C-alpha cells in the first residue's frame, strides 16, 4: 500500500469522547472570546473557532492541539468539525487561551511550542481569576523562530498588531477595543441590547418632542382664548 493511501486512510477524530471538564466561568469566557472575534469579522472571509481540534501535521493524528479561540484569515467561515492545516492551506494567525487550574500547565509549557511550530503569529493567555498568570493577561509575538513577550502598556493593556485591537481585562473579562477608533467590540447580544437601548432612547426623545409640541399648542390655544375673552369684555 502506498504512503499516499496510508495518509488518506488516517482517521482524525473531531472529539476525544471526554467532557470539556472546565468550570462554567472558563467555558463562558471562552465562548465570549469567540463571539467577540466573530462579531469583529462578521461578513468577512475569516474563520473564527475554538475548543476544536487543530491538526497540524498530515498523517499524524496525535499532532493535534485544541485552542480556546483562534483566528484564521483568508479562510471561509463555514462550519467545520475539525481544522486540518494541510487541507485548508491556512494557519491560525492568532490564538487565545483562557487559563484555569486545569489548563495552566499546557497553556504555559506545551501549547506555545506547538503554536511556534505551526507559525501562529500571536499567542495570548489570560487568567480571569488572577490565580495562575502574572500578569493576568499575557501576549507573545512570533519573532523569527521564537516568541517574544509583548510589552504591556502602563494600564496593563496589550496591543495585537495582527488584529489591530487593544486587549485588556475589566473585572476579569477580556475587553477588545479597536486600536484606531477606540471603539469597544461588542458581542452580538451586547450589540443587540445597545441597538434596543438606542431605539428606546429615540422613541423617548420623539415622545418628549411630541409632548413639548402638544404643550406649546395647548398654551397657544389657551392664550388665544384669553385674548378673545379680553376683547369680548372690552367690546361690552
The helicity comes to 25-40%
Uncertain stretches: 1-5, 194-199
What would the principal axes of the Cα set say about the shape? elongated
Assigned CATH class of the largest domain: Alpha Beta
**Computed CA radius of gyration, to the nearest angstrom:** 28 Å
Largest sheet entry? 6 strands, mixed
Q: Label the structural class.
A: alpha+beta
Could you give the order of strands across the largest sheet?
1-4-6-7-8-9
What would the average pLDDT be, to the nearest integer?
Answer: 84
Could you name the CATH homologous superfamily of the largest domain?
tt1808, chain A
Give me the CATH fold name of the largest domain: tt1808, chain A
How far apart the termini lie comes to: 121 Å
List the defining traits of the structure above:
single chain, 236 residues, alpha+beta, tt1808, chain A, 6-stranded mixed sheet, 3-stranded mixed sheet, 39% helix, elongated
Question: What is the compact description of this entry?
Answer:
This protein has 236 residues and is of the alpha+beta class.
Amino acid at each position: 500500500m502506498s504512503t499516499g493511501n496510508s495518509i488518506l486512510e488516517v482517521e482524525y477524530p473531531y472529539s476525544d469522547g471526554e467532557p470539556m471538564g472546565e468550570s462554567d466561568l472558563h467555558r463562558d469566557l471562552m465562548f465570549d472570546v469567540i463571539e467577540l472575534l466573530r462579531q469583529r469579522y462578521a461578513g468577512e472571509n475569516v474563520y473564527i473557532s475554538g475548543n476544536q481540534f487543530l491538526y497540524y501535521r498530515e498523517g499524524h493524528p496525535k499532532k493535534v492541539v485544541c485552542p480556546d479561540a483562534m483566528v484564521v484569515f483568508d479562510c471561509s467561515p463555514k462550519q467545520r468539525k475539525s481544522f486540518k492545516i494541510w487541507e485548508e492551506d491556512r494557519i491560525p494567525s492568532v490564538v487565545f487561551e483562557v487559563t484555569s487550574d486545569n489548563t495552566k500547565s499546557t497553556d504555559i509549557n506545551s501549547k506555545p511550542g506547538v503554536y511556534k511550530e505551526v507559525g501562529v503569529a500571536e499567542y495570548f493567555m489570560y487568567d480571569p481569576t488572577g490565580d495562575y498568570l502574572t500578569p493576568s493577561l499575557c501576549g507573545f509575538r512570533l519573532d523569527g523562530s521564537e516568541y517574544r513577550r509583548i510589552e504591556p502598556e502602563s494600564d496593563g493593556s496589550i496591543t495585537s498588531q495582527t488584529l489591530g485591537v487593544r486587549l485588556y481585562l475589566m473585572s476579569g473579562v477580556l475587553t477588545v477595543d479597536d486600536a484606531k477608533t477606540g471603539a469597544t467590540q461588542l458581542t452580538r447580544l451586547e450589540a443587540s441590547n445597545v441597538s434596543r437601548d438606542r431605539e428606546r432612547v429615540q422613541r423617548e426623545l420623539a415622545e418628549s418632542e411630541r409632548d413639548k409640541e402638544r404643550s406649546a399648542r395647548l398654551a397657544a390655544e389657551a392664550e388665544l382664548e384669553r385674548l378673545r375673552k379680553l376683547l369680548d369684555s372690552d367690546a361690552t
